[in-house]
Write a structure and sequence with these properties.
This protein is of the alpha/beta class. The protein has helices at about 10-30, 35-60, 70-75, 80-95, 125-130, 145-150, 180-190, 215-220, 225-230, 250-260, 275-280, 285-290, 305-310, 355, 380-390, 395-405; strands at about 105-110, 115-120, 135-140, 165-170, 195, 205, 225, 240-245, 270, 295-300, 315, 330-335, 345-350.
Length: about 400
Protein backbone atom coordinates (compact mmCIF):
# COMPACT_ATOMS: atom_id res chain seq x y z
CA UNK A 1 0.00 0.00 0.00
CA UNK A 2 1.40 3.37 -1.00
CA UNK A 3 1.88 5.94 1.75
CA UNK A 4 2.97 9.55 1.83
CA UNK A 5 4.25 11.93 4.46
CA UNK A 6 2.19 15.02 5.36
CA UNK A 7 3.46 18.33 4.12
CA UNK A 8 5.09 20.85 6.44
CA UNK A 9 1.97 23.01 6.34
CA UNK A 10 -0.26 20.04 7.17
CA UNK A 11 1.91 19.25 10.20
CA UNK A 12 1.66 22.86 11.33
CA UNK A 13 -2.12 22.85 10.84
CA UNK A 14 -2.41 19.69 12.89
CA UNK A 15 -0.32 21.23 15.64
CA UNK A 16 -2.53 24.30 15.73
CA UNK A 17 -5.62 22.08 15.95
CA UNK A 18 -4.14 20.14 18.87
CA UNK A 19 -3.31 23.40 20.63
CA UNK A 20 -6.92 24.53 20.15
CA UNK A 21 -8.22 21.34 21.71
CA UNK A 22 -5.83 21.59 24.64
CA UNK A 23 -7.17 25.08 25.33
CA UNK A 24 -10.66 23.68 24.87
CA UNK A 25 -9.97 21.09 27.55
CA UNK A 26 -9.16 23.85 30.01
CA UNK A 27 -12.38 25.64 29.13
CA UNK A 28 -14.36 22.40 29.46
CA UNK A 29 -12.94 21.79 32.92
CA UNK A 30 -14.33 25.18 33.94
CA UNK A 31 -17.88 24.22 32.90
CA UNK A 32 -19.91 23.04 35.86
CA UNK A 33 -22.81 20.64 35.53
CA UNK A 34 -25.35 23.42 35.07
CA UNK A 35 -23.44 24.81 32.08
CA UNK A 36 -23.11 21.36 30.57
CA UNK A 37 -26.81 20.72 30.98
CA UNK A 38 -27.55 24.02 29.27
CA UNK A 39 -25.26 23.00 26.41
CA UNK A 40 -27.22 19.76 26.01
CA UNK A 41 -30.45 21.76 25.76
CA UNK A 42 -28.87 24.02 23.14
CA UNK A 43 -27.76 21.03 21.05
CA UNK A 44 -31.26 19.58 21.41
CA UNK A 45 -32.79 22.80 20.08
CA UNK A 46 -30.32 22.91 17.18
CA UNK A 47 -31.06 19.29 16.32
CA UNK A 48 -34.77 20.04 16.19
CA UNK A 49 -34.23 23.12 14.07
CA UNK A 50 -32.14 21.30 11.47
CA UNK A 51 -33.77 17.84 11.63
CA UNK A 52 -35.52 18.07 8.28
CA UNK A 53 -32.42 19.37 6.49
CA UNK A 54 -30.41 16.57 8.12
CA UNK A 55 -32.76 13.87 6.84
CA UNK A 56 -33.04 15.43 3.38
CA UNK A 57 -29.24 15.47 3.08
CA UNK A 58 -29.03 11.79 4.08
CA UNK A 59 -31.78 10.85 1.65
CA UNK A 60 -30.07 12.68 -1.20
CA UNK A 61 -26.68 11.18 -0.41
CA UNK A 62 -28.06 7.63 -0.27
CA UNK A 63 -30.29 8.24 -3.31
CA UNK A 64 -33.41 7.03 -1.51
CA UNK A 65 -36.82 7.42 -3.17
CA UNK A 66 -38.78 10.18 -1.49
CA UNK A 67 -41.56 9.04 0.88
CA UNK A 68 -40.21 5.47 0.83
CA UNK A 69 -39.84 3.32 4.00
CA UNK A 70 -36.03 3.79 4.08
CA UNK A 71 -36.62 7.52 4.55
CA UNK A 72 -38.33 6.68 7.82
CA UNK A 73 -35.14 4.95 8.95
CA UNK A 74 -33.24 8.20 8.40
CA UNK A 75 -35.60 9.92 10.84
CA UNK A 76 -35.56 7.26 13.55
CA UNK A 77 -31.81 6.60 13.39
CA UNK A 78 -30.84 10.22 12.75
CA UNK A 79 -32.43 13.15 14.61
CA UNK A 80 -34.73 11.03 16.80
CA UNK A 81 -32.10 9.18 18.92
CA UNK A 82 -30.04 12.36 19.22
CA UNK A 83 -33.04 14.25 20.60
CA UNK A 84 -34.00 11.51 23.06
CA UNK A 85 -30.39 10.95 24.18
CA UNK A 86 -29.77 14.65 24.80
CA UNK A 87 -32.94 14.87 26.88
CA UNK A 88 -32.11 11.75 28.91
CA UNK A 89 -28.51 12.83 29.48
CA UNK A 90 -29.64 16.28 30.59
CA UNK A 91 -31.92 14.58 33.13
CA UNK A 92 -28.94 12.62 34.47
CA UNK A 93 -26.87 15.79 34.77
CA UNK A 94 -29.72 17.49 36.63
CA UNK A 95 -29.96 14.53 39.02
CA UNK A 96 -26.26 14.88 39.85
CA UNK A 97 -26.70 18.64 40.36
CA UNK A 98 -29.35 17.82 42.95
CA UNK A 99 -27.15 15.20 44.67
CA UNK A 100 -29.27 12.37 43.37
CA UNK A 101 -28.21 9.32 41.37
CA UNK A 102 -29.20 9.18 37.68
CA UNK A 103 -30.80 5.78 38.35
CA UNK A 104 -33.14 7.10 41.03
CA UNK A 105 -36.67 6.29 39.90
CA UNK A 106 -35.58 3.34 37.75
CA UNK A 107 -36.52 -0.22 38.73
CA UNK A 108 -33.86 -2.74 39.66
CA UNK A 109 -34.15 -6.47 39.13
CA UNK A 110 -32.19 -9.71 39.02
CA UNK A 111 -30.88 -11.47 35.92
CA UNK A 112 -29.31 -14.93 35.40
CA UNK A 113 -25.90 -15.43 36.98
CA UNK A 114 -26.64 -13.25 39.99
CA UNK A 115 -26.56 -10.09 37.88
CA UNK A 116 -28.24 -6.84 38.86
CA UNK A 117 -30.44 -5.35 36.13
CA UNK A 118 -31.89 -1.89 35.59
CA UNK A 119 -35.18 -1.58 33.73
CA UNK A 120 -34.86 1.27 31.22
CA UNK A 121 -37.83 0.58 28.92
CA UNK A 122 -40.63 1.31 29.49
CA UNK A 123 -39.84 4.06 31.98
CA UNK A 124 -42.18 6.93 31.19
CA UNK A 125 -45.80 7.01 30.13
CA UNK A 126 -44.55 8.00 26.67
CA UNK A 127 -42.57 4.74 26.45
CA UNK A 128 -45.63 2.72 27.39
CA UNK A 129 -47.72 4.41 24.72
CA UNK A 130 -45.23 4.65 21.85
CA UNK A 131 -43.38 1.35 22.36
CA UNK A 132 -46.14 -0.80 23.78
CA UNK A 133 -44.99 -4.38 24.17
CA UNK A 134 -41.26 -3.57 24.07
CA UNK A 135 -38.94 -3.66 27.05
CA UNK A 136 -35.24 -3.21 27.70
CA UNK A 137 -32.99 -3.72 30.68
CA UNK A 138 -29.34 -3.06 31.38
CA UNK A 139 -27.43 -5.91 32.97
CA UNK A 140 -24.37 -5.42 35.09
CA UNK A 141 -21.50 -7.93 35.40
CA UNK A 142 -21.79 -10.61 38.12
CA UNK A 143 -20.92 -9.35 41.57
CA UNK A 144 -21.95 -5.72 41.04
CA UNK A 145 -24.50 -4.67 43.66
CA UNK A 146 -27.42 -2.27 43.41
CA UNK A 147 -25.64 0.07 45.82
CA UNK A 148 -22.54 0.08 43.61
CA UNK A 149 -24.64 0.87 40.54
CA UNK A 150 -26.22 3.84 42.31
CA UNK A 151 -23.01 5.26 43.78
CA UNK A 152 -20.99 5.03 40.55
CA UNK A 153 -23.67 6.26 38.17
CA UNK A 154 -22.49 9.54 36.72
CA UNK A 155 -19.01 8.46 35.62
CA UNK A 156 -16.79 11.49 34.92
CA UNK A 157 -19.60 13.90 35.80
CA UNK A 158 -19.10 12.91 39.42
CA UNK A 159 -15.92 15.03 39.19
CA UNK A 160 -16.49 17.37 36.23
CA UNK A 161 -13.35 19.46 36.78
CA UNK A 162 -11.09 16.44 36.23
CA UNK A 163 -10.76 16.23 32.45
CA UNK A 164 -9.17 13.30 30.61
CA UNK A 165 -7.37 14.87 27.66
CA UNK A 166 -8.30 15.00 23.98
CA UNK A 167 -9.96 12.16 22.03
CA UNK A 168 -10.93 11.49 18.44
CA UNK A 169 -14.26 10.09 17.25
CA UNK A 170 -14.13 8.38 13.87
CA UNK A 171 -17.62 8.42 12.39
CA UNK A 172 -18.37 5.05 10.79
CA UNK A 173 -21.25 3.13 9.31
CA UNK A 174 -24.46 4.30 7.74
CA UNK A 175 -26.22 5.63 10.85
CA UNK A 176 -25.96 9.40 10.86
CA UNK A 177 -26.59 9.87 14.59
CA UNK A 178 -23.61 7.76 15.66
CA UNK A 179 -20.84 10.39 15.45
CA UNK A 180 -22.90 12.98 17.32
CA UNK A 181 -23.90 10.56 20.06
CA UNK A 182 -20.31 9.37 20.43
CA UNK A 183 -18.99 12.92 20.73
CA UNK A 184 -21.61 13.85 23.35
CA UNK A 185 -20.88 10.68 25.31
CA UNK A 186 -17.11 11.27 25.29
CA UNK A 187 -17.59 14.81 26.54
CA UNK A 188 -19.81 13.84 29.44
CA UNK A 189 -19.07 10.22 30.35
CA UNK A 190 -15.27 10.40 30.06
CA UNK A 191 -14.78 14.18 30.39
CA UNK A 192 -12.63 14.13 27.27
CA UNK A 193 -12.60 16.91 24.68
CA UNK A 194 -13.36 15.40 21.27
CA UNK A 195 -12.49 16.08 17.65
CA UNK A 196 -14.90 14.39 15.49
CA UNK A 197 -21.36 1.20 13.44
CA UNK A 198 -23.64 -0.54 11.77
CA UNK A 199 -26.99 -2.05 12.93
CA UNK A 200 -27.50 -4.34 9.96
CA UNK A 201 -27.99 -8.10 10.06
CA UNK A 202 -25.06 -10.06 8.66
CA UNK A 203 -25.99 -13.67 9.37
CA UNK A 204 -29.11 -15.68 10.16
CA UNK A 205 -28.91 -19.02 11.97
CA UNK A 206 -31.99 -21.21 11.50
CA UNK A 207 -32.98 -24.74 12.45
CA UNK A 208 -32.72 -27.23 9.61
CA UNK A 209 -35.75 -29.00 11.13
CA UNK A 210 -37.97 -25.93 10.80
CA UNK A 211 -40.75 -26.57 8.30
CA UNK A 212 -40.59 -23.05 6.86
CA UNK A 213 -36.82 -22.73 6.65
CA UNK A 214 -36.84 -22.65 2.86
CA UNK A 215 -39.32 -19.76 2.73
CA UNK A 216 -37.38 -17.41 5.00
CA UNK A 217 -34.55 -16.48 2.61
CA UNK A 218 -37.05 -15.47 -0.08
CA UNK A 219 -38.88 -13.20 2.34
CA UNK A 220 -35.65 -11.62 3.55
CA UNK A 221 -35.10 -10.40 0.00
CA UNK A 222 -31.39 -10.16 0.60
CA UNK A 223 -28.30 -11.32 -1.17
CA UNK A 224 -27.22 -14.72 0.05
CA UNK A 225 -23.64 -15.85 0.01
CA UNK A 226 -21.50 -18.78 1.12
CA UNK A 227 -21.60 -18.66 4.96
CA UNK A 228 -17.87 -19.23 5.32
CA UNK A 229 -16.47 -15.76 4.60
CA UNK A 230 -19.62 -13.99 5.76
CA UNK A 231 -19.46 -15.35 9.31
CA UNK A 232 -16.00 -14.07 10.19
CA UNK A 233 -16.21 -10.59 8.71
CA UNK A 234 -18.36 -7.46 8.77
CA UNK A 235 -19.79 -6.06 5.56
CA UNK A 236 -21.18 -2.59 4.89
CA UNK A 237 -23.08 -4.05 1.97
CA UNK A 238 -26.33 -5.96 1.23
CA UNK A 239 -24.91 -9.32 2.34
CA UNK A 240 -26.74 -11.79 4.56
CA UNK A 241 -25.51 -15.32 5.17
CA UNK A 242 -27.89 -18.14 6.11
CA UNK A 243 -26.55 -21.04 8.14
CA UNK A 244 -28.59 -24.13 9.03
CA UNK A 245 -27.98 -26.12 12.20
CA UNK A 246 -29.66 -29.48 12.94
CA UNK A 247 -31.22 -30.78 16.13
CA UNK A 248 -34.14 -30.39 18.51
CA UNK A 249 -35.13 -26.90 19.70
CA UNK A 250 -32.94 -27.28 22.80
CA UNK A 251 -29.95 -28.55 20.85
CA UNK A 252 -30.41 -25.96 18.11
CA UNK A 253 -30.52 -23.13 20.64
CA UNK A 254 -27.36 -24.33 22.38
CA UNK A 255 -25.51 -24.80 19.08
CA UNK A 256 -26.71 -21.46 17.71
CA UNK A 257 -25.41 -19.63 20.79
CA UNK A 258 -22.09 -21.46 20.57
CA UNK A 259 -21.78 -20.65 16.86
CA UNK A 260 -22.59 -16.99 17.40
CA UNK A 261 -20.08 -16.72 20.23
CA UNK A 262 -17.22 -18.65 18.67
CA UNK A 263 -17.52 -18.12 14.91
CA UNK A 264 -18.94 -14.68 14.17
CA UNK A 265 -16.88 -11.50 14.13
CA UNK A 266 -18.23 -8.45 15.94
CA UNK A 267 -20.42 -8.29 19.04
CA UNK A 268 -22.73 -5.22 18.91
CA UNK A 269 -26.02 -7.08 18.69
CA UNK A 270 -27.75 -10.43 18.29
CA UNK A 271 -31.41 -11.30 18.22
CA UNK A 272 -33.47 -14.43 18.71
CA UNK A 273 -36.77 -14.83 16.88
CA UNK A 274 -39.11 -17.49 18.22
CA UNK A 275 -42.85 -18.11 18.26
CA UNK A 276 -44.32 -17.98 21.79
CA UNK A 277 -45.50 -21.59 21.37
CA UNK A 278 -41.90 -22.59 20.66
CA UNK A 279 -40.53 -20.65 23.61
CA UNK A 280 -42.99 -21.90 26.24
CA UNK A 281 -41.89 -25.59 26.32
CA UNK A 282 -38.23 -24.60 26.52
CA UNK A 283 -38.55 -23.35 30.09
CA UNK A 284 -35.53 -21.28 31.17
CA UNK A 285 -33.51 -22.17 28.05
CA UNK A 286 -34.24 -18.90 26.16
CA UNK A 287 -33.23 -16.81 29.18
CA UNK A 288 -30.10 -18.93 29.57
CA UNK A 289 -29.33 -18.39 25.88
CA UNK A 290 -29.67 -14.63 26.26
CA UNK A 291 -27.31 -14.72 29.23
CA UNK A 292 -24.82 -16.90 27.33
CA UNK A 293 -24.68 -14.80 24.15
CA UNK A 294 -21.60 -12.57 24.32
CA UNK A 295 -23.11 -9.54 22.59
CA UNK A 296 -23.56 -5.94 23.69
CA UNK A 297 -27.29 -6.01 22.92
CA UNK A 298 -29.36 -9.19 22.80
CA UNK A 299 -32.95 -8.97 21.60
CA UNK A 300 -35.78 -11.50 21.73
CA UNK A 301 -38.36 -10.97 18.99
CA UNK A 302 -37.11 -7.45 18.41
CA UNK A 303 -34.55 -5.56 16.38
CA UNK A 304 -31.35 -5.07 18.44
CA UNK A 305 -31.46 -1.50 17.19
CA UNK A 306 -34.25 -0.87 19.72
CA UNK A 307 -31.37 -0.78 22.20
CA UNK A 308 -29.65 1.80 20.02
CA UNK A 309 -32.81 3.90 19.96
CA UNK A 310 -33.30 3.69 23.75
CA UNK A 311 -31.27 6.55 25.17
CA UNK A 312 -30.88 5.03 28.62
CA UNK A 313 -29.74 1.68 27.22
CA UNK A 314 -26.20 0.99 26.01
CA UNK A 315 -24.85 0.43 22.54
CA UNK A 316 -21.49 -1.17 21.96
CA UNK A 317 -19.49 -4.36 22.02
CA UNK A 318 -19.62 -7.06 24.64
CA UNK A 319 -16.89 -6.56 27.26
CA UNK A 320 -13.57 -8.28 26.68
CA UNK A 321 -12.18 -7.05 23.35
CA UNK A 322 -8.57 -5.90 23.33
CA UNK A 323 -6.49 -3.63 21.12
CA UNK A 324 -5.04 -6.77 19.53
CA UNK A 325 -8.53 -8.09 18.73
CA UNK A 326 -10.74 -5.05 18.90
CA UNK A 327 -13.62 -6.32 16.68
CA UNK A 328 -16.57 -4.03 17.56
CA UNK A 329 -14.63 -1.87 19.99
CA UNK A 330 -14.02 -1.48 23.69
CA UNK A 331 -16.65 0.05 25.94
CA UNK A 332 -20.10 1.42 25.20
CA UNK A 333 -21.89 4.59 24.16
CA UNK A 334 -25.35 6.11 24.63
CA UNK A 335 -25.82 4.97 28.28
CA UNK A 336 -27.56 8.19 29.30
CA UNK A 337 -27.76 6.97 32.90
CA UNK A 338 -23.94 7.00 32.89
CA UNK A 339 -23.65 3.56 34.50
CA UNK A 340 -20.18 2.27 35.26
CA UNK A 341 -19.24 -0.87 33.32
CA UNK A 342 -22.60 -2.28 32.14
CA UNK A 343 -22.32 -5.70 30.55
CA UNK A 344 -25.17 -5.64 28.04
CA UNK A 345 -28.64 -4.48 27.11
CA UNK A 346 -31.45 -7.02 26.75
CA UNK A 347 -34.44 -6.08 24.59
CA UNK A 348 -37.74 -7.94 24.30
CA UNK A 349 -40.54 -7.29 21.85
CA UNK A 350 -43.92 -8.68 20.82
CA UNK A 351 -43.91 -11.52 18.31
CA UNK A 352 -46.77 -9.93 16.35
CA UNK A 353 -47.93 -6.37 15.62
CA UNK A 354 -51.31 -5.22 16.90
CA UNK A 355 -53.32 -6.41 13.90
CA UNK A 356 -52.38 -10.04 14.59
CA UNK A 357 -51.77 -9.82 18.35
CA UNK A 358 -55.45 -9.05 18.93
CA UNK A 359 -56.51 -12.16 17.01
CA UNK A 360 -54.27 -14.29 19.22
CA UNK A 361 -55.44 -12.74 22.48
CA UNK A 362 -52.10 -11.13 23.30
CA UNK A 363 -52.31 -8.12 25.69
CA UNK A 364 -50.15 -5.76 23.63
CA UNK A 365 -51.01 -3.14 21.05
CA UNK A 366 -47.85 -2.47 19.06
CA UNK A 367 -48.32 -1.14 15.52
CA UNK A 368 -45.96 -2.34 12.82
CA UNK A 369 -42.61 -0.84 13.89
CA UNK A 370 -41.40 2.06 11.74
CA UNK A 371 -38.06 0.32 11.22
CA UNK A 372 -39.74 -2.48 9.25
CA UNK A 373 -38.89 -2.22 5.55
CA UNK A 374 -42.51 -3.16 4.83
CA UNK A 375 -43.91 -0.25 6.84
CA UNK A 376 -45.88 1.88 4.38
CA UNK A 377 -45.91 5.01 6.56
CA UNK A 378 -42.37 4.82 7.95
CA UNK A 379 -41.44 8.19 6.48
CA UNK A 380 -44.35 10.01 8.10
CA UNK A 381 -44.14 8.09 11.38
CA UNK A 382 -40.41 8.71 11.67
CA UNK A 383 -40.86 12.44 11.10
CA UNK A 384 -43.68 12.60 13.66
CA UNK A 385 -41.60 10.70 16.23
CA UNK A 386 -38.78 13.19 15.79
CA UNK A 387 -41.25 16.03 16.20
CA UNK A 388 -42.55 14.41 19.38
CA UNK A 389 -39.01 13.93 20.74
CA UNK A 390 -38.42 17.64 20.21
CA UNK A 391 -41.16 18.42 22.75
CA UNK A 392 -42.99 15.39 24.25
CA UNK A 393 -46.67 16.25 24.63
CA UNK A 394 -50.03 14.52 24.60
CA UNK A 395 -51.38 16.65 21.76
CA UNK A 396 -48.83 15.14 19.34
CA UNK A 397 -49.76 11.53 20.07
CA UNK A 398 -52.93 11.15 17.92
CA UNK A 399 -51.03 11.94 14.71
CA UNK A 400 -48.21 9.56 15.66
CA UNK A 401 -50.69 6.75 16.40
CA UNK A 402 -52.73 7.39 13.26
CA UNK A 403 -49.64 7.17 11.06
CA UNK A 404 -48.18 4.17 12.90
CA UNK A 405 -51.39 2.15 12.72
CA UNK A 406 -51.58 2.67 8.95
CA UNK A 407 -48.10 1.20 8.54
Amino acid sequence: MATSQPSTEQVRELGRAVDDFVRGETAWAGCDRAKRRELLHQIHAATTQHAAAWVHAAVAHKKLPKDSPPVGEEWITGPYPVQTSLGALAASVEALEESRSPVDGFSFGRAPGGRVSVRVLPHSIWDQLLLNGFSAELRMPPGVTKETVRSRAGLALLRPAETKGVGVVLGAGNITSTPILDVVYELHATNRVVAYDCVASLAVVISSAWAQKDRLPAHLRAALSDPGPALDGAYFAPVLAVLELPGSPHQFLDDAVRTANETFTGTPGANLIAHPRTVAPLGPAPDDAIAALRYGTVALNAWPGVGYLTATATWGAYPGHTLDDVQSGIGVGHNALLLDGPERTVVRGPFRPASRAILHGEPVMPPRPPWFVTNRTADTTGRLLADFAAAPRRSALPRVFASALRG
